[in-house]
Specification:
Layout (H helix, E strand, L loop, with lengths): L3 E6 L5 H14 L3 E7 L12 E4 L8 H12 L3 E4 L5 H6 L1 H6 L3 E2 L4 H8 L1 H10 L20 E5 L9 E3 L2 H11 L2 E5 L3 E10 L5 E13 L2 E7 L3 H14 L4 E9 L4 E7 L6 H6 L4 H9 L16 E3 L17 E4 L8 H16 L4 H10 L4 H8 L6 H10 L10 H10 L3 E6 L3 H11 L1 H4 L2 E4 H5 L9 H10 L6 E5 L7 H6 L2 E4 L10
Parallel strand pairs: 1-2, 1-4, 2-3, 4-5, 15-16, 15-18, 16-17, 18-19
Antiparallel strand pairs: 6-7, 6-8, 9-10, 9-12, 10-11, 11-14, 12-13
Helix pairs in contact: 5-6, 11-12, 11-14, 12-13
Length: 514
């Protein structure tokens, strides 16, 4: 199965969005690797990514080149911007990304420019046959009456956006904001419409939401409202805009029932995961499109009337004063013993079955070259029909393996100090159990979790279920636990999210060495 690699830029606090991608990949049984790029290494969403990339500021000249280098090196399939700042630069450089095989989920530059200037945005709405409060860019020319609304011409997230009740107040805010627009204040019910189109601009999901509670421009409580009038109006808007991927539209329905369109954000809005939870599976659509599948316009499948309320949670991005450790959880392979010993042991058994001990060296040679060793070896000796039996022998053999020096003493020392000790490992249960028995770990440690035994491969790291089970079993807070592992790509994602400490065993001879 080909791994899909997605890079989010300006990832900041977009934890909900990343979780939706994780859930979609699990549901569709697709392999997904998530990269996060941000100029600040304290961005909380980075803890939920498989790989973090520190980049320069989005307004710096070298920003697109840094992203291009990451995409080329990591073979990124798709770049997804999450804030307004880099939309235009990514759109203008879209062809450069496509030249190295990376798609960018961004609309055409002409459309981005319309969205970034509120005057152009209002004109675009009107040209689509929709109502919009027409702005002016000089407060002295404003004739729309009061209350009025003043905001930055290229603003977002309601930063420096103000309702004003008289001319003197308008003058003061105009001096503060400088590059602004002024328009009539529309009183009524506020809606957000989460739109998703395929890569050619055809609509797939249109999900209106009533904004019940808002803070700093981002919704805290929302109600899904599949209003047919709003949906028809947005279909007209999409036909003119031809968005690539997500687009968030803001409108106000006044007391007479007239809709006034205010804003377009050609990206996933902060509240977009709320529509996804209600059934607008735009993230699943992305993964399907990247896999070469088609997407059709989906109507009336979203949970109309559902109400969602959001909350915040914290993740530790930098440890402060050390707290005492009361529980240590170990990875198994290449952490407590050298996994290459297991591989060689298995190849020895396969060679014995094939009746030629010389094939052990041949299997190892193929393994070291990065090929599927058993497949390549059987093809060479024209015995492909025996593949299943060879795999069974490899996976179920009683291995000849040994713990790293000092491991037994370290585990016994932790237990004498009253520290809980456990093992959490991925892999096929029978093979992992054979390893544990061969190493004598079942006599040293009673709390051992093989994630596949919990319910299959989906419970493997970075899934956090195994960690939660051990914390609950020991009745210890996550802050008092540490996980010791060797695979920097997947071992520590869940511990970081849960607030655990972690220790990286940098195994230079390991299978996952970096």
């Amino acid at each position: 199965m080909k791994q899909i690699r997605i890079l989010f830029t300006g990832i900041g606090r977009r934890v909900e969005l990343i979780q939706e991608f994780r859930n979609a990949a699990i549901y569709l049984n697709k392999k997904l690797k998530i990269y996060g790029a941000d100029s600040a290494d304290t961005a909380p969403a980075l803890a939920f990514c498989d790989c973090s990339k520190r980049v320069c500021g989005m307004k710096e000249e070298g920003y697109p080149n840094e992203l291009l280098a990451i995409c080329k090196e990591e073979k990124i399939d798709l770049v997804i911007p999450t804030i307004d700042t880099d939309l235009l630069v990514l759109s203008e450089n879209k062809g450069r990304f496509e030249a190295i095989g990376t798609k960018v989920l961004i609309s055409d530059p002409s459309m981005i420019r319309i969205c970034r200037d509120k005057t152009y945005t209002s004109g675009f709405f009107v040209n689509c046959g929709l109502k919009a409060p027409m702005p002016v860019d000089d407060w002295k020319n404003y004739q729309g009456g009061y209350p009025a609304f003043i905001k930055p011409k290229d603003g977002s997230s309601s930063v420096n956006a103000y309702k004003v009740s008289r001319e003197e107040e308008l003058r003061i805010y105009a001096e503060k904001i400088q590059d602004y627009v002024v328009q009539k204040f529309i009183k009524g019910r506020e809606y957000t419409v989460d739109i998703f189109a395929d890569f050619e601009g055809n609509p797939v999901w249109i999900t209106p939401r009533l904004r019940l509670v808002v803070r700093a421009g981002e919704v805290l409580k929302t109600e899904i409202c599949l209003d047919s009038k709003i949906i028809r109006e947005c279909e007209t808007l999409i036909k003119a805009f031809r968005p690539c991927g997500p687009m968030t539209v803001q409108l106000i329905r006044d007391e007479k029932g007239e809709d006034y369109y205010i804003e377009i954000n050609p990206r996933f809005g902060g509240g977009a995961p709320l529509s996804m939870k209600a059934g607008a599976k735009s993230v699943e659509t992305i993964l399907k499109l990247l896999s070469g599948e088609k997407a059709e316009y989906r109507r009336n499948v979203v949970s109309n009337g559902a109400v969602y309320s959001r909350y915040e949670q914290s993740v530790c991005v930098k440890e402060g004063q050390k707290r005492p450790i009361k529980g240590v959880i170990f990875d198994l392979d290449d952490t407590l013993y050298p996994e290459k010993e297991y591989v060689k042991s298995g190849f020895r058994k396969v060679a014995e079955f094939l009746g030629d001990e010389r094939l052990e060296a041949k299997l190892w040679e193929y393994f070291e070259s990065g090929r599927l060793a058993i497949d390549a070896c059987l093809k060479e000796v024209s015995r492909e029909t025996e593949k299943e039996e060879c795999l069974r022998i490899y996976r179920t053999h009683q291995p000849d393996i040994h713990l790293y020096k000092g491991v037994t003493e370290q585990i016994e020392g932790l237990k004498k100090r009253g520290i809980q000790v456990g093992i959490l490992t991925d892999g096929r249960p029978e093979g992992q159990r054979n390893k544990i028995a061969a190493l004598g770990l079942d006599k040293l440690i009673s709390d051992i979790i093989i994630t596949d035994e919990l319910g299959g491969e989906r419970f493997r790291k970075p899934c956090d279920i195994g960690f939660r089970i051990l914390a609950q079993r020991w009745m210890l807070p996550y802050e008092a636990l540490v996980y010791v592992g060797d695979n920097i790509q997947k071992d520590f994602q869940a511990p970081r999210q849960l607030g655990m400490k972690w220790v990286w065993v940098r195994n230079e001879d390991g299978i996952y060495k970096i």
